[in-house]
Amino acid sequence: MITSEYQLSGTAVLQVNEVSKAFQYASPGSQRHVVLNRISIDVKDGEFVTIVGASGCGKSTLLNIIAGLESPDSGSILVKGERKVSTDRDRIVIFQEGALFPWLTVLENIEFGLKLAGSSKEKRRQAAGRFLNMVQLSRFANSYMYQLSGGMKQRVAIARALAIDPDILLMDEPFAALDVQTRDLLHNQLLQIHEATKKTILFVTHNMNEALSLGDRVVVLSPRTGGIKKEFAIGLPRPRDVESPEMTVIKRQILKELEEDFQFARRETRTETIQ
Amino acid sequence: MLEEKHVQKQSSNRSFDISDAANIALFLAAFVGIWQLVFLLEIWPAYLLPSPAIVVGTIGDLTENSSLPIGIGITMARLGASFAISLGIGVGVGLAMVKFRGFGKTMSSFAVGLLTFPSIAWVPFSIVFFGFNDFAIFFVVVIASVFSVMISTYSSIRNIPPIYLRSARNMGANGFALFRHVMIPAATPSLILGIRQAWSFAWHALIGAEMFIATLYGLGHILNVGREFNRMDDVIATMITIFVIGVIFDRIIFRKIEERVRSRWGLDQHSE
To answer: Rounded to an integer, what distance in angstroms lies between the CA atom of residue B148 and that of residue B155?
Structure first.
């Protein structure tokens, strides 16, 4: 019956309902630190949503909760109308770095999820080959991780996630450790993949230009309140020029929203060091 | 793609080069030369310090009357059997230590304490308990090496980068699949170091045990008989054999495995 509700509403493949999370600092007598405060986001099927916020605003925590790797203090996660409390192959996380397995080749890494699902060797090879081709790394099928550059590793990570065929890709600052040129290349590649596969993508970043050039919608989180500060729908066609006048307008707005929070974050750091 | 040019080529040909071999040959020549010189000075009678040539002859004799090959065979069989037991128990208990935290904590401090305990000090206990037989030898070897395997299993698994486990769980790995496909391979590089150390403990303990726990065969037995009959050439010939076996295992077999694992895991890449 929950499923039928989903079918009725029809659109949101992922629903984040009033999710809250607080952490208790280890030192005695300290307050609970609320990182997420009643966050609600609905993500439509095939939508590309970026979540942007200053460090410490709980973006990664939110993503982990959505993935089922952490549990919220309250609130719920619904995928296609079904409540989710643990990890599942319908939501695959692409981590910032270091999540690929060094003991496997590129191809074996991509096959990993399929192997767990028990699909035949032939089928695995075929699917892995297809996604390896999609990220343009076919020549490196038999390489090991140490032989790849940071950008190539992230492309393998994307192929590995796609091979599992999830409904939603959860990307946790996947390009944060890369240089600017490589990041631009990967942005284009990711957009092409999004275009080709129509996967729903939730992409967390602290980089505003990245959030603006990728997302259909940009959600700004606030570390001060732990809530959603504002959402911006970006209707501009891709690839986008982040320096264009339209983008600059939106950028200014977001910056204004973030400004108070940066000041807040600075104060926080100061009080922490005094303690 | 632009960045693909960054791919690092690894020099795979580093196994054994000429200068290494020359160094070893030089060292051996110097060692044998000094030995021969001391022999020629006749400070000690020949039955106390035989010449290199005599010892080589003895190795030949011992090989011909097959006491050395049988000794090596028996000793290696004992090592294989007891080290297998040690690996089984060590890995098993190590995994239990990971699974049950309280047990792991207690057991690891206990095991670390026993690591420093001289294995030869178990010999009297073992003789009284098992008698003069192979089981007594097995016991000493197992107890000498099992704690090293245990601790290494425990720490190797606990030190697996959590991100491997998170991403594997995210992709649907649970229970045995997580263990088999992620935890074991992720722990392998550090596990190999531990096993290498455990092997060396086992090897030390085995020769000691063979000397004290009198049985009819084994390298330790030949050493002991050599001492009783004042056959110094037998003693030195056996010592050389023990040395060579140790070198073959540690420097060649374990090192090769370790190098292969380290290079595949990318642990030898200092750049980047």
So the answer is: 11
